[in-house]
Structures are given as structure tokens and as C-alpha cells.
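ok so heres the complex, three chains, lmk if somethin looks off
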Amino acid sequence: MVEQVGAALVIGILLGCLYAVVAIGLSLIFGIIRVINFAHGSIAILFMYLGFLLWRLWGIDPYLSIIIVVPVAFAFGYGVQYILVRPMFVREKTYVVEPLGVLLLLCGLDLVISNGILLAIGPYALAVTNPYISGVIQWGGFLTISVPRLILALVAVGLCFGLFWLLNRTELGNSIRAVGQNREAAAICGLNVHHIYALAFGLGCAVTAFGGCVMLPFYGIYPQMGIGLAIKAFIIVVLGGLGSVPGALLGGIIIGVVESVASQFMPGTMALIISLVLFLIIVLLRPRGLMGTIEV
Amino acid sequence: MAILEVSKVTKRFGGLVAVHDLDMRVDEGEILGLIGPNGAGKTTLFNLVVGYYQPDGGRIVFQGHDITSLKPYEVCQRGIARTFQTTKPFMDSSVLENVVIGGFMWSHGTAEARKTALKALGMLELDDRAETLASELTVPDRKRLEVARALATGAKLLLLDEPMAGLTPSEKAHTADLLRRVSEQGITLVIVEHDMKVVMTLCSRIILMDRGEKLVEGTPQEVSSDPKAITAYLGVEYAA
Amino acid sequence: MKQGTGIGALAERLRRRQIPSGWIVIPVLLILLVILPFVWKQPFYVNIFILIFLFGYLATAWGLVGQSGQLSFGHAAFFGLGAYTSTLLYTQVGVSPWLGMLVGAVVAVIAGAIIGYPTLRLRGVYFALATLAFCVILQIYVRNTQFLGPLTLGASSGLWITPYAGAKGPLFYQFASKTPFYFIALGMLVGVVSLSHLLNRVRLGYYWRAMRSDPDASESLGINVGRYRLMTFLLSCALTALGGSFYAQYFYFISPDRVLDISLSVEIVLVGVVGGWQTVFGPMIGAFIIIPISHIISAQLGSTLFGLHIVVYGIILMLFILYLPRGLNIPVMRGLRWLEAKLQRQPESSSDKPRRKPSGYTGS
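and the predicted structre for the whole thing:
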């Protein structure tokens, strides 16, 4: 019994890192632009599909396709912010926009992307077989960990550290954080706020795409999975704290563990309901989340 | 008779102490001036009184009731209304509608709220522009709209945050007259203001704040001759 | 009214032909719609109009929350709750759906209170996220659940609205032809739009305008923003649930994929946005435009090209947000003003110069 829960715990942490990888990008985008990217789920799977296609058409292993997919994701994210979202800011002549209009805009984008994928590829579930790295690690006779999942967890932590280094130890990161803290002041200091917004969006997409590629070796994809991932990511971002990247990792792990342990004792659908209840409790008691700094 | 008593109120933002152990008394019916350099904590004090921020220490008592932990809408229901330094009118609504929204605070029904609103607009001489969209108003008019809206809530105490900022001297004199009229209705005013000429003539009492603390308190004459006030804020020209 | 009220003023305005065009357009429209099912008897047309009325109703009910300054992405959840509640009570317990739909409304209000109370007090996106999550999670739950206590939920196979024992007929919300449904739907639409219009004229409507313009300033004027938003949301949930019960009775079949799906939420949002989602008449206008188009698209292409019509929805949504964020309501209102101006006899004085009316409240 203890071993079962222990195993569930470990699986949960690995699962949590998977969710976190999607949530980190979302949290970053919100932290800088103050916009919840409603299209995040479908963007995540868009680049997973891209990675899949690279494997299917040209045999590029997902771990390698990172080199191609991540820059494309960055450019895509940059474009989305600069071309679609920026006009909303410009129209309002502010740097912080009443969020509802942008929400609707990104919702529309989400529909276009996820159903565009459906249209182009069909409703089938697809999976990568024979990735470069596969196999399992056995531990103690009761714990079986799939190696690709472990790698994903390490990648999640690595991305977290990488972003931390980027945001806190580089000139660019300072600019980004400055914009995130006070847009007008940053603009007065000569920073191009909209360019930085676009960078942030691109970065958020790139991080998510990175994680997505690392998910491909073990995670099958289908067009409707975007919304499920997105909802988990939203819950995690609120739990961990809007705008906090380490918070997203922590939140992801918590949700992953809760789901994994709970599904030992009750059917899977109940585990989802628990996540929703957890979300409501957090919002009730501490809306800014565990590590969030943004006042609500 | 004190209508508002602020006792030992403190507010910290992280490492910054915005308001430190402040005591303040506002007497019923007076016009109290709150002056001080930028960053002295004047707006923070307003925000604390109306419940926008919660103090880290101290008490705020209004008409004998402790309002320290109340939320902004509850504070307004008790009878305190405030205006904002950067005006916040409801842009897509007309001047009249803006004030009617304030008027619903103590009027029942739309007709009564409109009456209250028109009265408030009349007192601030905005009734001829009742149907104008708030977004089309000039800055002095917006400032007056803020005051009218706050007035319509039936508040006994108005906290006015820089109601004269950005106005020309004649506009300031005119607005000061309007405020005097409001005060004659029995409403207590606390005004944050930087223009010393206005403050000297309009206010019966002045409090000077600096760096979150109360520095000097008294009548305009007392404050303008106080050496602390001169060095901290006033400069030698205003010395009595 | 700025020209004063009372019979004298009314007569004066009639003399000068200063009639709000609404007084003409609406009765004409109503008369046309009432005659329609007797003139155009084909069920195809009656069906389209029923759908238009239903979505106009749903979008208007959804739009109430928009008028208070928040955005719900999960309204399908309350629609489904209404549909399932009245259906379960009817087909498995024998309760008339007229009663069952009220129970459905209560269920929706309870669910809405749980979701709305923590989130509507806060700024920003918490509410939108919560409603979205709720809708998706509810659908997954029902898809995977065959039984709920003594009741059969049917999981993804759904439920047929088969009468319980001998409980048939109008008393049990069942009719032989489409026509009664047509009039019920029309009545619902007229009712909810009238409700929206009336609410805008009383304190709640004024508070709506304040809250969606500036919640902070509203709080400083004594408005408990969270509470009014919650009240509005609960009203919206109840109304939406009633719509769900109607759907169940009209279509005879419900399933998680039809009544709890996010695409239904999307369609409601789209109808609202196209028409003008923070206005009284906007959502209804949106329904008259979008539903026929959507019907045509999904009839022609929906079965062959999966997902195309939602891609189109997404594009339309984005285009409207970017270029026509206030929706088609604006051009329609402009058209009505033009009509008013044409009708009006020119007055002797020129004091009635055309002035842009505050969009605070005129239905625009």
C-alpha cells in the first residue's frame, strides 16, 4: 500500500513536470504582458504536431527536431503578439489592456489552430514510435519509470532554471522584467514595449514547444487534447502564482501528484474534479497563488 | 467634534514605509488641507481611510464606528466618498449618468437618484452639460464631475485628491468657490493640494505630511510660520 | 427623457414625429415573426427560426454577464445542466418538464454560485478560466458516467426524451408540431430581451455600466462589484438552463457532445460578439446573422470536412474583435437613427441638432 502511494507520488511528480512545461510558458506570457494566452493549449499541440510531422516525413527524432521546432515556435509567438494582439493595445492607446477583448481574440485563435489541425490532419490519434531514447527504469520491484518521462521532468526543471538565468542574469532579461513591472516607465527609458511583449510571447511559445517535443516520445497526440492541457495549465498557473515561473513548476508538480495519488483511490474523472475544486479553493483563499507577486 | 479619527496608522509596501504611525483628526464641517511633497503618503492615507488598502497597524474611526477593516464599498456606504488624482469618470456614460450612479448610493429608484444627481451637478455648475459624454469633457470639468459624483453618494466626508491639479489660476479660484459652497452644506472636506495660495484661503486647518509622517498641524498661519514646514516643503517665500 | 415625461410631452413628441424608431421597427418585426409560421409552413424554415430565437435567447442571457463586465466561456455547462435535469426528471421520474426546467434552473444557480462566488470578486480572468474549466470538466464527467445514484445519465450515448409512462402532451412540454415550439422560443427571446432592456433602466443597469467601465471607481461609489456581478451571473445561469430544457423537449435527444460541448459555448459567444456583446439588442442581432450562416456551413460541409465550421467561427470572432469590437449593433443603431431623422418633422428651432447619444444606455 505504501509502495503504491509512493509509486503514485513519483509518477505524479513526473506527470506534474509534464503539465508544468506547458504552464511555464503561459505564466511567463502573463507575467510580462498581463494577458492570459487562451490559445496556449492549441499552440502547444501545434508544435507537437510539427515535431511529429518532422519525424513522420523526414525521420527526424523528436529530441533532434527541437532545433527546428523551437525557433519556429518563437517566431510564431512573436508574430501572434505583434500582429494580432498589439493592435488591441494600440487601439486602446495603453500598455495594459482591458483583458476581455484580448481573451476573446485569443479564444478565436485557439479555435482556428486546433480545428485547423483537425481539418488538415484528421481526428486520429498519432504517436511517435522508436524514438532515440526509450525504455524504462525499474526500481525496488514496484516502481517503473519510463525514461522519456524522466527526461521530460529534467527538461522541465532545466527550462525553469534556464528562464531564471535568462530573466535575472542577462541584459535582455532585465528589459523584459522591467517591462513586466512598469510598462510606462520602461517605455520612457527607451525600451520598445511592444517588441518586448512580442519577445515574451515568443519565448513562452518556444519554451512550450521545447517541452512539447520532449513529450512526443511517450505522449500520443490528437487535435482535441489542447483544451485539456490548457485547462490544467490555467489551474497550475493560478495555483503557482500568475507570472511566477518557479511557481508554475511547483504548481504543476502539486497538481500532478494530486491527480496521480487520487486516481489510486477513485476514477479518473473524479481526479479532474478535484483539480477544479483545488482551483476554486486557491482562488477563494489566496488568489495570487503560492508564489505569485501580482496583486489581484 | 471629530468626524474622522486616524490613530497610529501604519502602511508598509515591502520594505517601504508609506505611512508611519500617523495620527489625524478631522473635525466635522471643516475644510482640512493635506499638504506635503510628492511621495509623502497623502494618497496612501486616502486609500487607507477608504479601505482600498488595509493598514498594517492602527485604527480608523468614522463617526464613532471602527472602519479599519471595511472594504471600499462599505466605507462609502458609511458616508465617506473620495475622488481620484487622475480622474476616473465612466467614459462611455454621460455626465448625468455618472452622477446618477453615485446617487444610487442613498436614493431609491432611478427618478430619485436623478434628482439627487441634478442637485449635485447644479452645485458644481455642470448641469448645463448633463448630457455630454464624460469622455468629451475638459480636464477641469472632469475634476468637477468627480466631486459631483462623490457628492451625490450622500457622503458626509469627502476626500478630494488634488481637485485643482492642472487648472489655471482662475479655474482654481472658481473651483475653490464651488468647494466652499459644498462645505456650507455641512459636508466635511479633506483636500490634498499643492497650490499654497488655494490652501491658505480655502482651508481652516492644515496638516503637513512628509515621508509618511505628520510633520506640522495647525491653522494656515501657524503652519506657514513653522520652521519645520518651511524647510520640508514650503520654502521661504510662503513663510509668514 | 430629456424632453420631460407625461402625456403632454408625449403628445408634443408625436406632433413633431419624434418617434423612437424602435416603436415602429419592433412591432413590425414582431408581427412578421408571428405570422411567419402560418405563411412559410415548411418545417425547414420554422426550424431555422426556432434556432435563431433559441440562440438569440441564449446569447442575450449570456450577454447579461458581459454587461456586468465579465466574460463566461462555459455557458454550455448551464445549458446542459438544464437539459439534463429536466430530462432526467421527466423520463425517469415523470415530472413535467415545465416543472423540471425550474428545478434545472435551480441546479444551474447552485453550480453558478459555487463557480462564481470565489471568482467574481476578483479582477481579470479567474472567472473566465473557471467557467471554461467547469464546462469542460462537466462534459468529461457526464461522458464517463452511466449512472448517478438511481438515475441513468447515459454517458456518451446520451438520453432520449421518451415520455415516462403515460406522461404525454402539452402538459408535459410535448407538442405535435413545431409551431408551439416556435412561439415558445419567440416568447423566450422577447422575454429575455425585454428583461435586459428593463434592467438597464434601473439601478442594476446603471451599476453594470459603472462596473464594466471602471470597477475601482465603482467600489469607491459604494457598489459591491462582486455581489452585483454574482447576482447577474446567477440570473444568467438560470435563464440559460431554461433554454437547455427547451432544447431537450424540442430535439428529443441530448448527449454530452451536444449540450455540454465547448463548441456550444463558442457559438453563444460568437453570436454575442458579432451582434455586440455588451448591449441589449446585440446578441439577438447576432443570432439573426450567424445562425443561418452556421446552418448552411455545417449542412454543406460539416460532415465532410471536420472542424471547418469552427475554424470559420474562430476567424469571424477574431475579425470582429479586431475590427468591429462593438459588433453589428452599431451599424444597426445607426440605421435606426437615420430612420428616426427621416421621420422627424423639422422643428422650428434648430436646438435638436444631431448629437451623438451617450452609449450609456439607449440599447446601443
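quick notes: The longest strand of chain B covers residues 2-13. thats all i got rn
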